[in-house]
Amino acid sequence: MGHNGRMEHDKRDFYGGVYALVKRIPAGYVTTYGQLALALGRPRASRIVGGAMSRAPQGLPCHRVVNRLGELSPPEVFGPGVQKGLLMLEGVPFLKDGRIDLKRCLWIPKKEI
DNA sequence: AGAGTGACTCATA
DNA sequence: CTATGAGCCACTC
Questions:
Q1: pLDDT tens digits for range A73-113
Q2: Residue A3's pLDDT is what?
Q3: In the structure, how far is the CA atom of residue A37 from the C1' atom of nucleotide B12, in angstroms?
């Protein structure tokens, strides 16, 4: 198991923990960088979660991770309008100002250890 | 090995 | 309400 490359399921790897949680976010819900960090026992590592997202393997629902104000990622990340389009297709509620209505769709990951 | 990085968050103005 | 500054810390190279 021990190798020099990246491991998908190494619990000592914070990024790996982030990816495992992101996989569980249900369609129609979103979570925040801070909530993921908190669930992994690193309440001040929200910025690190952002780093994990920017290097995430394909196939993860990274568009369901937003900041604590319900604001989406910069347009260059998914392409202009792409993230919002995906979330709207999944039924995520938006406010008039374009932010996500987190009161109605925030998914809080179960705390890990 | 260690300085640099950043899809964040919080405090402050 | 918006804007800006500082702290944060796992990962990258």
A1: 999 999 999 999 999 999 999 999 999 999 999 999 999 87
A2: 46
A3: 24
Q: Is the CB of A48 under 7 A from strand B?
A: yes
Instruction: For chain A, give the mean pLDDT.
Output: 92
A68 CB neighbours strand C below 7 A: no
- Per DSSP, helices labelled H in A1-113 are 14-22, 33-39, 46-54, 75-78, 82-89, 102-105
SS3 A45: coil
Instruction: Round to whole Å and give the CA distance between A36 and A113.
Output: 13
Alpha carbon distances (Å) from A55 to A18, A39, A113:
11, 20, 24
A69: nt with nearest C1' to CA: B9
Token pair 């952002």 is found at: A50
The percent of residues above 90 in pLDDT, for chain A, comes to 88
